[in-house]
Amino acid sequence: KKITIAIDGFSSCGKSTMAKDLAREIGYIYIDSGAMYRAVTLYGIEHGIFQDDRIDTEKLKKQIADIHISFRLNPETGRPDTYLNGVNVENKIRTMEVSSRVSLIATLDFVRKAMVAQQQEMGKAKGIVMDGRDIGTTVFPDAELKIFVTATPEIRAQRRYDELKAKGEEARFDEILENVKQRDHIDQNREVSPLRKAEDALLLDNSHMSIPEQKEWLTQHFKQ
Ligand code: C5P
Known about the structure:
3-stranded antiparallel beta sheet; 9 helices; binds cytidine-5'-monophosphate
């Protein structure tokens, strides 16, 4: 019988790599809920809803129903790409500009409501692995397997730095570390669905684990 797997945790803790690999291995659908908040943020940037550090909340609220996010498998990478209103935005949503604004967008109640509704709809399929911040607590409180992933901010920043560099993008370690810490703070302290471990989630601190070690850990728990 196929189940629902919820993987939550701090930003850049490697949970999406974990979730993607697991989904591929067991033949489940992978959904990156963070990509959805990133796509809303990109939409906001492209539609002028940011004025310096302020968000034109009313404007975004009026447009939220026009924001449609979907995922389609990229045959080259074997992983799903994110589409915003039919356009592939997979690369555009991973920039520092989006990363530095997304947590604020994710504090907005109407944005979360819209995303959670779309996520629950996708979850009806069963056999899904979804990663994010509130999957085990809010989106799928009844998920059969819940995992909460964490690592130190320095280690997470280093991983993001390496990832950006590998893609040939400009990256500064101190800037990334600052962004990681800032997002942790906003995610943990927002009013709606703050980032926290569900009581029945398994805790995985992967600060000192390799990817194969993590995979092994996950496979063990999936089998149980
Ligand atoms: O996972 P990722 O770092 O791409 O997520 C981007 C941002 O979206 C997070 O920093 C967080 O603020 C927000 N998010 C959220 N709830 C989720 C997934 C992501 O608030 N389920």
